[in-house]
Design goal:
This protein starts with a helix and ends in an 8-residue tail after the last strand. It has one domain: LmbE-like (Rossmann fold, 3-Layer(aba) Sandwich). Helix 4 packs antiparallel against helix 9, helix 5 crosses helix 6 and helix 7 runs antiparallel to helix 8. By secondary structure, it is α/β, with parallel strands linked by helices. The protein has an 8-stranded mixed β-sheet with strand order 1-7-8-6-5-2-3-4, sandwiched between helices. Helices cover about 45% and strands about 15% of the residues.
């Protein structure tokens, strides 16, 4: 009986290891160049993120912390206060959620070492309804003020998760860069744009219709950066109103998910290449 139990345990262990290896491969992107710091790889001394919601910066946690470790200046724009989000767990009155999440993103930005942050008050879920000229002008003004070498945002056609606010902010960032490149000022915009992506294989296999939409509408990743799991887990503690978001969205605890999703993927383009449509 003892040997039989040992064999059964070995079979279960092998199955578990095989399953882990299979899932881990879904989160890999062999085509991407693995770098310790994307800012370092691109020679960017100033980085700026353009996102839609509090906690969006969690997708770029590794990029931000590695940039800061290399001495880069980092600024961040968050277009909404996230007031329409679902609390997981509930930590406050729903009518106060925008205030809570505003504070959470500022606190997490401080923990990440971000030098300057702006949280705008566009409606959560309603960014596509904001006049495009207004968004572009505001993003362009912020970029001109922070003068980044590298802008980090969402791919306009997929938004990393299919969220329309993400897609709209990615498009606004692109058009703002085009406006700066066409201007006559001393600063003519960043040299590169990095689009935060979600792992295409995992999205295609595990995320249903939304995952397939994202994969069909996002480019192949060009670079992979270590995800800084410890910082991401701390980030979810700070984003207390979204602290159980990963479990709700992906069905597993964040600590377990980040065992396999341990790299951030980006599509990097020279700013001079964004004139064409996606």
């Amino acid at each position: 009986m003892i040997w039989a139990f040992g064999i059964a345990a070995a079979v279960l262990l092998l199955a578990g290891v095989s399953g882990f290896v299979w899932v881990n491969r879904l989160f890999e992107a062999p085509e991407a160049k693995h770098v310790s710091s994307l800012a370092g790889e691109l020679g960017a001394n100033r980085v700026m993120t353009v996102f839609a919601h509090p906690d969006d910066e969690q997708l770029a946690n590794g990029l931000i912390t590695s940039a800061k470790a290399g001495g880069a200046y980092v600024a961040q724009v968050t277009a909404t206060r996230g007031e329409a989000g679902t609390q997981v767990p509930v930590v406050a009155r729903q009518r106060d959620l925008g205030v809570i999440r505003h504070a959470e993103v500022l606190k997490n930005g401080f923990a990440l070492g971000i030098d300057e942050q702006e949280v705008w008050d566009y409606p959560d879920g309603g960014v596509p309804d904001v006049p495009m000229d207004e968004l572009v002008a505001r993003v362009a003004e912020a970029i001109a003020r922070y003068r980044p070498d590298l802008v980090v945002t969402f791919w306009p056609a997929s938004g990393a998760t299919g969220h329309k606010d993400h897609m709209r902010m990615g498009l606004a960032a692109e058009q703002a860069i085009l406006r700066l490149r066409a201007g006559e000022g001393e600063y003519r915009g960043p040299s590169h744009v990095a689009y935060a992506l979600t792992p295409p294989r995992a999205m295609a296999r595990l995320a249903g219709e939304t995952g397939r939409f994202v994969v069909e509408n996002q480019p192949a990743p060009t670079h992979a950066v270590p995800g800084n799991t410890a910082s991401k887990l701390k980030g979810w503690e700070i984003h207390a109103s979204q602290g159980d978001y990963v479990r709700k969205a992906y069905g597993v605890p964040a600590r377990l998910l980040y065992l396999v999703w341990d790299k951030e993927l980006y599509a990097v383009r020279a700013a001079s290449e964004i004139e064409g449509e996606n």
